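Minutes, methods subgroup
Present: GH (chair), OT, SY

1. OT presented the first of two proteins processed in the latest run. Sequence and structure tokens recorded below as shown on screen.
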Amino acid sequence: SLDELMERRPSQLSGGQQQRVALARAIACRPDVFLFDEPLSNLDARLRLEARGFLKQLQHDLATTAVFVTHDQSEALALADRMAVMELGEIRQVGTPSDLFHHPANLFVAGFIGSTPMNLVPGTAGSDGVTFEGGVLPVAAPTIPVAGRDVEAAHVVYGIRPEYVDVTEPSDGLDGTVTVTENLGTQFLVTVEIGGVQLRATVPEGDEPRLGDRVGLAPDARRALLYDAATGSLLG
């Protein structure tokens, strides 16, 4: 509520309070388009979640176009109907949040979108997958054109999200050593070193391995993406 702030001057408000007052004033004007430039940045985590839900509901109820600028990709994924990701003033991809999460068009977007970053592994594509120092990573379609030639024997970057990598017994996947485990609440983010490369996977709480354990990693080939190592563009 803003009731307790009514008698205060702007200089007497905290940063978060100033943002809420400015937001309320903008809404009261009933504009044709809202332009929000990081309106939630000074709020604490709990209030930010509440304000995010309020803004999304308000935008839906008012049926008013809103342009929301943020450096917080989780905030963008939660709020947007369509997203534009920019790098150094250039738009790198435009699409729905699902498009950008599941099919990032280039390595910049792939590394930016997602609260747990996508695994990005340089390697050489062949008929059986992408070969890197730790073994062969499976792909569903290893004959995608790269600049007019087949991807086979081409230098590529293999991309897969940690959510699509299973932790298995060493004999059932790429064999490596657990170097980091991070508790995310209902799941753990597990980092495994394989051939000098760090790969991440998520596992349910209670199934997490211990530091130093030998485990296998089994990426879902259907979820794997290939990028041209020279241009950084998504293949296929």
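2. SY then presented the second protein from the same run.
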Amino acid sequence: MLLLGAILLAVFVLPSPWGILAVVAGGLLDIVESIVLLKWSRRRKAPVGGAALVGRRARVVSPTQVRVAGELWEARAAEPLRPGDEVEVAGAEGLTLEVSRPSREPR
């Protein structure tokens, strides 16, 4: 965007040597801006899959499935799961969530 402004400024307003300087400066600013925005956008990876659900509450649908945030997931627990129970996601292995009884009462 800055490069476009520099080109327009160079063509219509500035005398010849200053026009070249404006285009070069605009181009350099565009490059620096692109690098900064690229680094900023990659600063943190978004958690995906089961790892993003760790710590969330889930409702047991069947002995091997839970519903978390409106989605059905396969689940595994140390104790038997009964439909209707509320559990907490403790971890994930592939597409199977490891769940346990909630560690504390909801706030």
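Chair's summary of item 2: The chain has two helices and five strands.
Next meeting: continue with the remaining queue.
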